[in-house]
Design brief:
61% helix
């Protein structure tokens, strides 16, 4: 399978608490995905020359990523994602990425 942001949003929605999932529209989830990609890029996790044995999703510090996302969300005046909801969303997103392998 290939990455599809709409499938990623659907996957996140289906793998977090339904009450939390209903609080946000797709644009909020897409914003979070963009933030995750920004984090990956800033930390060299998008390098195309990384071997399969090198850094993997297991090497991503989920706590650090959630803190980064919370900082970015606070800076975005239009964002509505609550910091306490970010970690489960990020974990669901990373599960989606792993499902593509």
């Amino acid at each position: 399978m290939e990455f599809d942001e709409n499938d990623a949003v659907k996957y996140i929605r289906e793998h977090i608490d339904p009450a939390v999932a209903a609080l946000y529209d797709d644009n909020e989830y897409l914003n979070l995905i963009d933030i995750i990609f920004d984090y990956y890029e800033a930390n060299g996790l998008l390098d195309l020359d990384i071997d399969e044995d090198d850094e993997t999703d297991e090497d991503v510090d989920t706590d650090e990523l959630a803190e980064y996302a919370a900082r970015m969300i606070r800076r975005d005046k239009g964002a509505r994602l609550a910091p306490e909801h970010l970690r489960p969303m990020i974990e669901a997103y990373m599960d989606y990425e792993n499902s593509l392998d």
